[in-house]
Design goal:
The chain has six helices and no strands. By secondary structure, it is mainly α. The chain has one domain. The relative contact order is 0.12.
Length: 173
């Protein structure tokens, strides 16, 4: 019995020391993992944030380039027919969109949807106004109709999208 008591006198303190050491080591390892995870998140945010901002900049540039005034200045020439201007504007919008398609990776789903809707609405406006005028009309006639249509609107679709994207950037920063 004395041998059992001696074993217990040695074993119980050893078990207490072992449990204490195990708890301390487990907490140290957990704290170290948490610290590494936080450093990784911070490092990723330092890398990703500038890329995200660049993507938003490119999308705003895209929206500015597909705004009606910008499109008309860039693609119209005095000798163009309405059909030629209509086609050139749609091609410019599609080309710009395809060029910036990859930026959706860095944007929220809602912001990308707003951008896509702005693009679609611009195409609808251009198509609807092109259908209203005779086919033999000049590009200048189509330009005037498009500008009149935009003036009637409360806000151009691209302007609304730009405002949304700017607000999202403000929330991100």
């Amino acid at each position: 019995m004395e041998a059992l008591a001696d074993i217990l006198k040695i074993s119980i303190p050893a078990l207490i020391v072992l449990c204490t050491a195990w708890i301390i080591l487990r907490n140290m390892i957990k704290n170290d993992q948490d610290k590494r995870r936080q450093e990784l998140v911070l490092q990723n945010s330092r890398t990703v944030t500038p890329i995200k901002l660049q993507a938003y900049e490119r999308i705003i540039l895209f929206l500015e380039r597909i705004s009606l005034e910008s499109l008309l200045i860039r693609v119209s020439t005095p000798e163009m027919s309405a059909d030629q201007l209509h086609s050139a504007m749609l091609n410019a919008i599609r080309s710009e969109f395809e060029h910036n398609l990859s930026q959706q990776i860095y944007m929220s789903q809602q912001a990308w949807e707003v951008v896509r809707n702005a693009r679609s609405n611009m195409i609808k406006i251009i198509n609807s106004e092109a259908e209203k005028i005779p086919q033999e009309s000049s590009g200048m006639t189509l330009s005037k109709k498009l500008l009149e249509k935009i003036m009637e609107m409360e806000q151009e679709p691209t302007r609304a999208a730009i405002d949304y994207v700017k607000a999202e950037i403000g929330r991100m920063i």
